[in-house]
Specification:
Layout (H helix, E strand, L loop, with lengths): L9 H14 L15 E3 L13 E14 L3 E15 L7 H15 L11 E15 L5 E16 L1
Parallel strand pairs: 1-2
Antiparallel strand pairs: 2-3, 3-5, 4-5
Length: 156
């Protein structure tokens, strides 16, 4: 969350805006899943200790400058929204849940661009992937990953 004494950069405002969009995903709101009621992370501190359930993370993977001047700079950023369900957990069919979550994320990311935080000039979903990932300890998860691109303008 934002600190009251720090004006967050537009990149962080976009991350928080997108996390807010994920939190809208509930069955009561007409979606297939309730992933918005679960763990939605924007920072490592958002993860409860020893948590092993489904979770969504919103993060930026790339920020590249496109132009700058004395009073402002424009950037193109890559955004990743990832929903992960551990295999062997409480969910009987994690692959189906991930398919539903991908569709819900895609739906939640359709919005009027006028709702974007000030300084975000564009937003476009570029890709969606479904995959299985594992670690060295033999744990695996099924993952839905949405990638997007956004334009930012920061004023100095």
């Amino acid at each position: 969350m934002s600190s009251p004494d720090i004006d967050d950069p537009v990149s962080w405002k976009l991350v928080e805006f997108l996390a807010g969009r994920v939190r809208l995903i509930t069955k009561a709101a007409g979606y297939r899943t309730d992933i918005g009621l679960g763990v939605v992370m924007t920072d490592d501190s958002d993860v409860p200790e020893d948590y092993e359930g489904p979770a969504t993370i919103v993060e930026m993977d790339r920020i590249s400058g496109t132009s700058s001047g004395r009073a402002q700079a424009s950037s193109d950023v890559g955004v990743v929204i990832e929903f992960s369900v551990p295999r062997g957990g409480e969910h009987e069919n994690p692959r189906r849940l991930v398919h539903c979550a991908r569709a819900d994320l895609r739906k939640a990311l359709v919005f009027d661009t006028r709702d974007l935080p000030k300084g975000v000039t564009s937003f476009e979903v570029t890709e969606a992937n479904l995959t299985t990932v594992g670690d060295d300890n033999g744990h695996s998860s099924v993952v839905a990953q949405i990638t997007a691109r956004a334009g930012l303008t920061e004023l100095f």
